[in-house]
Design a protein that fits this description.
Length: 222
């Protein structure tokens, strides 16, 4: 072995030839089976109808299960509120549906009205000869100030109203215009309870009027 082989790790040909002695004799013998035409399938029909193919019905995930003893998760979505006067524009299953539908609809309606209010206010605030960028800035400021304010206020009042209205209807056993008016008055008074007696009465009267109007409209149209 040379010095170059020592540094590079290369082995001499004599070492490789002495260490690599592999027998070339086969260790396993294979023999081909003779073909017998008598036992072979003659056409595709005999192959497809053979017993070697699995049953397609056994591939179903519920194969082998007793259908009569299985337990299913049944969700009863058809149970609606059976209190008199509880049916409105949308089917209701109880106070939770009224709370979600009523609060969401009131919030979106008030948010839209507040946006229109802010649009008109922002358009009238700037002079007629103002640049378009200044006019757009004034409109956006008005919409973002009036829209969320009116939407959040109406959403909070509607949430309290639906809770009080459902509670009164539960104890009275029915939903009618009287429930809506009383719930509206209590909700409006509670919303302005920290401002004094006069703001409480005004707020209660306004919300009671809106609730009574909605009750009459729902009775007439729905």
């Amino acid at each position: 072995m040379s010095i170059w082989d020592t540094f590079t790790g290369r082995k001499s040909k004599q070492t490789q030839s002495s260490g690599e002695r592999i027998s070339s004799e086969p260790t396993t013998t294979f023999s081909n089976a003779a073909f017998d035409p008598a036992t072979a399938s003659q056409d595709a029909t005999s192959f497809l109808t053979g017993s070697s193919l699995p049953d397609a019905s056994q591939l179903h995930p519920m194969a082998g299960l007793n259908q009569q003893t299985l337990d299913y998760l049944s969700l009863d979505e058809s149970v609606l509120s059976d209190l008199p006067g509880s049916r409105s524009a949308l089917p209701s299953r109880g106070w939770s549906d009224d709370l979600c539908y009523g609060t969401g609809t009131t919030y979106l309606t008030a948010l839209t009205m507040g946006g229109v209010w802010g649009l008109i206010e922002g358009s009238n605030r700037v002079p007629a000869g103002s640049p378009p960028k200044l006019r757009l800035n004034s409109i956006l400021n008005g919409m973002t100030r009036r829209g969320p304010f009116l939407g959040n206020t109406a959403g909070v009042v509607a949430m309290v109203y639906n809770g009080v209205n459902s509670t009164i209807g539960y104890y009275r056993g029915k939903h009618d215009a009287a429930n809506s008016i009383v719930a509206g008055a209590l909700s409006g008074m509670l919303f302005k309870s920290t401002r004094g007696l006069r703001p409480m009465m005004i707020s209660g009267g306004v919300v009671a009027s809106v609730a009574g109007s909605w009750a009459v409209t729902r009775k007439v149209l729905f």
